[in-house]
């Protein structure tokens, strides 16, 4: 059933992994399935928002009513996100963006030579952080997937990237994080207030996050 609580709002969601080419046949990527971001895009759209989903390669179907912009690399996602965010009331940064990409992409397949091989990487744009610098009073939500010192690291990211709130999910938790259909989150806001939620389907987690966004937009 369609709702209208977010009617008139335009929101961006980034989702999925990025893929950083090494040569014509190889790349560096990560285990992000895109499921959490897609569930959020679907939920925001169901509430009447105009949603643009900037997505890395996932194999997931485009959620109903959502406009998807397909990208592969961190650089492509950066450009698409900056372009899209310019016309939006806010964004949810769900994508697992590579922090580093090969400094050079080989034109032909790299041959096997010697027992060791060193690949030089350079930093990519931190998309969330760059949007954080230009967001003004728009809402910006980030994700943190941590293996240690979870809260502490999440709060640091919240501040560094100028996010309004950050959704923390733990890799240590069974049923939470990459690939699975459930998640267990804690939402931390700028005031340092942390709200813990139970393990639930990603579609229900998306509702909790959408509720927070609604409250923030209506403030
Ligand atoms: O620093 P870290 O990657 O853990 O931060 C996670 C948050 O920042 C997520 O919301 C992620 O989508 C976003 N991010 C980004 N661009 C990057 C790295 C992370 O938008 N290059």
From TrEMBL:
Binding positions (CTP): 99, 109, 143, 157, 161
GO cellular-component term (any): phosphopantothenoylcysteine decarboxylase complex
EC number: 4.1.1.36, 6.3.2.5
Cofactor comment text: Binds 1 FMN per subunit.
A GO MF term: FMN binding
Catalytic activity entry: (R)-4'-phosphopantothenate + L-cysteine + CTP = N-[(R)-4-phosphopantothenoyl]-L-cysteine + CMP + diphosphate + H(+); N-[(R)-4-phosphopantothenoyl]-L-cysteine + H(+) = (R)-4'-phosphopantetheine + CO2
Pathway stated in the Swiss-Prot or TrEMBL entry: Cofactor biosynthesis; coenzyme A biosynthesis; CoA from (R)-pantothenate: step 2/5; Cofactor biosynthesis; coenzyme A biosynthesis; CoA from (R)-pantothenate: step 3/5
Superkingdom field: Bacteria
Cofactor(s) essential for the protein: FMN; Mg(2+)
Single Gene Ontology BP annotation: pantothenate catabolic process
Ranges for domain DNA/pantothenate metabolism flavoprotein C-terminal: 6-215
Entry keyword set: Decarboxylase, Flavoprotein, FMN, Ligase, Lyase, Magnesium, Membrane, Metal-binding, Multifunctional enzyme, Transmembrane, Transmembrane helix
Region Phosphopantothenate--cysteine ligase: start-end pairs: 11-219
Function statement: Catalyzes two steps in the biosynthesis of coenzyme A. In the first step cysteine is conjugated to 4'-phosphopantothenate to form 4-phosphopantothenoylcysteine, in the latter compound is decarboxylated to form 4'-phosphopantotheine. Catalyzes two sequential steps in the biosynthesis of coenzyme A. In the first step cysteine is conjugated to 4'-phosphopantothenate to form 4-phosphopantothenoylcysteine. In the second step the latter compound is decarboxylated to form 4'-phosphopantotheine.
Family to which this protein belongs: In the N-terminal section; belongs to the HFCD (homo-oligomeric flavin containing Cys decarboxylase) superfamily. In the C-terminal section; belongs to the PPC synthetase family.
The protein's name in its UniProt record: Coenzyme A biosynthesis bifunctional protein CoaBC
Taxonomic lineage of the native organism: Bacteria, Pseudomonadati, Bacteroidota, Bacteroidia, Bacteroidales
């Amino acid at each position: 059933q369609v709702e209208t609580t977010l009617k008139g709002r335009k929101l961006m969601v980034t989702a999925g992994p990025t893929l950083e080419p090494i040569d014509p046949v190889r790349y560096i990527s990560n285990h992000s399935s895109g499921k959490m971001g897609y569930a959020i895009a679907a939920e925001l759209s169901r509430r009447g928002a105009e949603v643009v989903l900037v997505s890395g390669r996932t194999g997931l179907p485009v959620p109903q009513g959502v406009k998807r912009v397909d990208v592969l690399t961190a650089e492509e996602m950066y450009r698409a996100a900056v372009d899209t965010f310019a016309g939006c009331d806010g964004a949810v940064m769900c994508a697992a963006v590579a922090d580093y990409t090969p400094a050079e992409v080989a034109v032909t397949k790299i041959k096997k030579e010697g027992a060791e091989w060193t690949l030089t990487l350079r930093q990519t744009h931190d998309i969330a952080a760059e949007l954080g610098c230009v967001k003004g009073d728009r809402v910006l939500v980030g994700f943190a997937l941590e293996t240690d010192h979870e809260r502490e690291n999440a709060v640091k990211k919240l501040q560094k990237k100028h996010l309004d709130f950050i959704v923390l999910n733990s890799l240590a938790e069974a049923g939470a994080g990459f690939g699975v259909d459930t998640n267990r989150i804690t939402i931390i806001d700028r005031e340092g207030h942390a709200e813990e939620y139970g393990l639930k389907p990603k579609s229900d987690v998306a509702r909790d996050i959408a509720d927070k966004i609604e409250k923030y937009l209506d403030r």
